[in-house]
Write a structure and sequence with these properties.
This protein has helices spanning 48-55, 78-87, 105-116, 123-136, 153-165, 183-200, 211-217, 235-240, 245-252, and strands spanning 6-17, 20-32, 37-41, 63-68, 71-72, 88-91, 171-175, 203-208, 220-225, 228-234, 303-306, 309-311. The protein is of the alpha/beta class and 317 residues long. It binds adenosine-5'-triphosphate and magnesium ion (MG). Adenosine-5'-triphosphate binds next to β1, β2 and α1.
């Protein structure tokens, strides 16, 4: 068996806050192969962005491992991390704030080339690379000297994409890359991401709170609740046989135009949201779970319930 392109093992990220230790990412493990997309879904504040940033070491992990091409990159020094960032990039959620307003489109895209691949290309080669990537990302060359504020949201996100893509990475964390865009533009950017994946064999971690988007783009899906993974399955398994009460609640909230499915049960979430600061052990969803029992206060690990299907819930032990 070959190793996955990227693998996280028991990754944790805690933040020290005035109120105590905030457990933003708790024991998260996953694998992503080349050409595959892992969708990460969950409500606002459940730790999706923190997870993506920790994988790329934009945050230092509190514990755990991130394996890329057979090595644990969390042990790398700064110089070796620069090589890693040639292979691992990020597209940020907000195309309005993630691009430097004082830099032209050309310079924004050129920056990672200058920083990461300075020695690999001559000036001419770098210029050619930037031209090619702009074309690939649907950015006509006439935009090269424009500034971010002169572009609409879709074009700005294409600049973000070109900037991530220009160093020819093998893995990209896409943090809600279409959430700030109009629906029609969302589809264009998603299709562009999928085309680029096919052409370049890219692996994506695709973070979103939008289940329709995650269904469109993912191969596997990880559902997070307050820093913990509650369910992890292939897309087909997750949408056809959701098991965790939280996943069921999320899926039942998707609007449908299919009248035959209108009568299905809606799982609404009640109860108080637990705090991620100094959380008690056990399932963090328990305070809102209609099936919670005494044993849910004890620790609850992800268990395999079917091929390509894992769930963290005592109901399925
Ligand atoms: N730098 C930080 N310092 C302290 N707490 C943080 C920091 N960054 C994130 N958090 C906290 O960690 C938790 C997870 O935040 P995160 O931004 O990862 O969530 P998210 O799932 O990406 O949410 P959203 O969907 O709103 O983007 C939240 O409780 C947040 O307040
Ligand atoms: Mg986020």
């Amino acid at each position: 068996m070959t190793n996955p392109l990227i693998e996280a093992k028991n990754l944790r990220k805690y933040f020290k806050t005035p109120g105590g230790v905030l457990h933003a990412v708790e024991d998260v493990s996953f694998q992503i192969d080349s050409c595959r997309t892992l969708g990460v879904v969950g409500e606002s504040g459940c730790g999706k962005s923190t997870l993506g940033r920790t994988v790329l070491r934009l945050h230092e992990a509190t514990a755990g491992e991130v394996w890329f091409q057979g090595e644990n990159i969390l042990k790398y020094n700064r110089k070796k991390m620069r090589d890693v960032h040639k292979n691992m990039q990020m597209i940020f959620q907000d195309p309005y704030s993630s691009l430097d307003p004082r830099m032209s489109v050309y310079n924004i895209i050129a920056e990672p080339v200058n920083e990461i691949c300075r020695k690999s290309y001559s000036k001419q080669e770098a210029e050619e690379k930037i031209r090619q990537i702009m074309e690939l990302c649907g950015l006509p060359l006439r935009y090269a000297n424009r500034y971010p504020h002169e572009l609409d949201g879709g074009r700005r996100q294409r600049v973000g994409l070109a900037r991530a893509m220009v160093v020819e990475p093998r893995f990209i964390v896409c943090d809600e890359p279409v959430s700030a865009l109009d629906v029609s533009i969302q589809a264009q950017i998603l299709n562009l991401l999928m085309d680029l994946q096919e052409q370049r064999g890219l692996a994506y971690m695709f973070i979103t709170h939008d289940l329709c988007v995650v269904r469109h783009i993912s191969d596997e899906i990880m559902v997070m609740y307050m820093g913990q993974v509650v369910e992890y399955a292939s897309k087909e398994e997750l949408f056809n046989h959701p098991l965790h009460p939280y996943t069921k609640a999320l899926l039942s909230a998707i609007p449908t135009t299919d009248l035959s499915r209108r009568s299905r049960i809606r799982y609404t979430l009640q109860g108080e949201v637990a705090s991620p600061v100094n959380p008690s052990p056990g399932c963090r969803f328990a305070p809102r779970c209609p099936y919670a029992e005494e044993r849910c206060k004890g620790s609850c690990r992800l268990r395999k319930v079917a091929p390509k299907h894992y769930v963290a819930c005592h109901q399925f032990e």
